[in-house]
Design goal:
Elements (H helix, E strand, L loop, with lengths): L2 H15 L7 H18 L10 H13 L8 E4 L2 E4 L9 H20 L7
Length: 119
């Protein structure tokens, strides 16, 4: 993924988290890189598709909010109980499927258009 796209996702994540300075950039960059890599793998591509940036922002914010609680499935403190989602990308599987269908349709269209037509 080009740095400009990574930077765009980072800017959006920082806006959602109300982070105005650069003190958390190293952590946020690592989170964004991990999320975008996992999205690319999930849709079967080598590079992260920019059209899925909003999902990357959502999942990056959720991942940031879980820092320090990695690996937990639930936690109880006094009368407060929290359950964690194990796979943050699972909520977006329907969008990923639609995206992959679109890629398949585009690929089929390209196969049909092989060859040149001269008028």
């Amino acid at each position: 993924m080009p740095n400009t796209e990574l930077d765009n996702v980072l800017v959006r994540v920082k806006a959602r988290l109300s982070i105005a300075d650069n003190t958390k950039d190293a952590l946020l960059n690592e989170i964004v890189r991990g999320v975008t890599d996992n999205i690319a793998i999930r849709v079967g591509l080598v590079a992260f598709p920019a059209v899925l940036s909003s999902i990357a922002v959502d999942v990056s914010v959720a991942t940031y909010n879980r820092v320090g609680s990695e690996g937990l499935t639930s936690e109880s403190i006094d009368v407060i109980s929290s359950a964690f989602i194990v796979d943050l990308l699972e909520a977006y599987d329907a969008q990923f499927s639609e995206y992959k269908k679109g890629l398949s349709a585009d690929e089929e269209g390209l196969k049909k258009k092989k060859g040149l037509t001269f008028w």
